[in-house]
Amino acid sequence: MLAVHDTGTGMDKATRARIFEPFFTTKEVGKGTGLGLSTVFGIVQEARGSVSVFSKPGQGATFKTFFPCVQGARDVAGPKPAPVNLAGSETILLVEDQEQVRRGRARHPQALRL
Q: Where would a tag sit more exposed on the chain, N or C end, judged by fewer CB atoms within 10 A?
């Protein structure tokens, strides 16, 4: 299970009922596409997981993503893979429309560190 919590404005029951619909957004026209949560929902479902949301107006939101457990030993046939270079040169794409959150200046910046 992976939980993500925010300290935003929260959602009422009617909004929560629609948040995973493609193109549903509470933002002004031109400020968001409404594809983020529907994409997450689709990816989690494809992995045979589920997503739960807990939110009330004025109390932020908590999203919990649940993934199936793997039981038993993994099938490790074949030679061992070569050691992985952990220095890496990967790029993480973070999409966020609030500048304070993007720049790590949110009310709880420690929650943004990876």
A: C
Q: d(Cα 67, Cα 44) in Å, to the nearest integer?
A: 7
Higher pLDDT, 72 or 17: 17
User: Three-state SS for 54?
Assistant: strand
Contacts of 27 (CB under 8 A, 6+ apart): 34, 97
Q: Residue 66: pLDDT above 90?
A: yes
Number of C-beta neighbours around residue 110 at 10 A: 7
Whether residue 27 contacts residue 38, with contact meaning beta carbons closer than 8 Å, is answered with no
- Structure-block tokens of residue 64: 């919990």
Gap between the Cα atoms of 21 and 51, Å rounded? 13
Question: Which amino acid would we find at residue 71?
Answer: Q
